[in-house]
What does this fold into?
Amino acid sequence: ELPFDLDTWNIDVDRAVKLIREVEPKFVTLGASVYLFPHPTKEISDAAHEVNARVIHDVAHVLGLIAGEAWPNPIHEGADVATSSTHKTFPGPQGGLIFLDNEKLYKRISKTIFPWFVSNHHLHRLPALAVTAIEMKYFGKQYAGQIVRNARAFAEALASEGFKVLAENLGFTKSHTIVIDVRDLGGGAKVAKKLEEANIIVNKNLLPWDPPEAIKDPSGIRLGVQEMTRLGMKEGDFEEVARLMRMLIIDDREPHEVKERVVEFRKSFIDVKYAFPIPKGVEESPLKVPMLL
It folds into this structure.
């Protein structure tokens, strides 16, 4: 496990380089599910390559930001292989991908994955993936930029409303993700459940100081802005969401009362943005769809 520095909310480069040189691993992995700031890929890759190790960087949460040029591409910074899902900030169907720029290594990986680990390739999802890739080519930069601006504005608004948003000294986040310490508000499980009762969906989340056994009731909640950004929300809209969350969690208002406001607010965000137009006839009613954060 690479050492983590809470002051920078990132890998401790000096300690990590020392550890890599001492252990001489076969490979080093980067990436995270709470991914607020880019990892020091170049520094870690340089150290790994000194001991003939490869670097695998998982960018599942930030692939859309990479496609939109709002986050560094790890392959360009020295990583040997990058892995990702295709359904987070990259708004496609569920699935995964591997990308790299070494043809020889690519062929070795391909022969290992098929037929040993994957026996079919789910053709039904490929048209949706292709459409998403084309949309990201045309709209990805605009979408990714708005995601990052929304996340920063949302974090600032949540902090102003009284929430303990982490990494304030670093500007809260450079990605789509925001993390809040809710230990003083009842813990992650309680807060997430109450928000869900009001149609605001968040993720209870372990924080770096939590032991693994705290998984069912961790210290934090994790929020992401990519889904509602794709439905058209901007900075001021996320400020309203912060107010709704404060009413529910800090002011301790009843969930049904706040839910009415959430449902009404959500009606303003129906059409998918940063995409080619969707025929009106295939859209479903959004009136009871929650906000996914």
In short: The chain has a mean pLDDT of 94.
